[in-house]
């Protein structure tokens, strides 16, 4: 996250929520939703990407189901 500090700072100024993998060398207060973990390991990053992708998929599925329910009632 250190490398992307400008993006995090600008997001905070514009009230854009952020999610970030925060290692021990970063300040978690800069991120809206900090995820503690190792941001230097490719295996860790792969796991986080897999989990984020699954969460996004589930969210879209839930949203679609809610839209279908809303149109049928």
From TrEMBL:
<dbReference type="GO" id="GO:0003735">
    <property type="term" value="F:structural constituent of ribosome"/>
</dbReference>
<dbReference type="GO" id="GO:0006412">
    <property type="term" value="P:translation"/>
</dbReference>
<dbReference type="InterPro" id="IPR005706">
    <property type="entry name" value="Ribosomal_uS2_bac/mit/plastid"/>
</dbReference>
<protein>
    <recommendedName>
        <fullName>Ribosomal protein S2</fullName>
    </recommendedName>
</protein>
<dbReference type="InterPro" id="IPR023591">
    <property type="entry name" value="Ribosomal_uS2_flav_dom_sf"/>
</dbReference>
<dbReference type="Pfam" id="PF00318">
    <property type="entry name" value="Ribosomal_S2"/>
</dbReference>
<dbReference type="GO" id="GO:0005763">
    <property type="term" value="C:mitochondrial small ribosomal subunit"/>
</dbReference>
<comment type="similarity">
    <text>Belongs to the universal ribosomal protein uS2 family.</text>
</comment>
<dbReference type="InterPro" id="IPR001865">
    <property type="entry name" value="Ribosomal_uS2"/>
</dbReference>
């Amino acid at each position: 996250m250190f490398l992307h500090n400008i993006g995090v700072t600008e997001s905070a100024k514009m009230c854009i929520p952020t999610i970030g993998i925060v290692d021990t060398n970063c300040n978690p207060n800069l991120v809206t939703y900090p995820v503690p973990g190792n941001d230097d390991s490719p295996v860790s990053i792969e796991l986080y990407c897999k989990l984020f992708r699954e969460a996004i998929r589930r969210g879209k599925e839930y949203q679609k189901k809610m839209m279908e329910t809303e149109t049928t009632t």
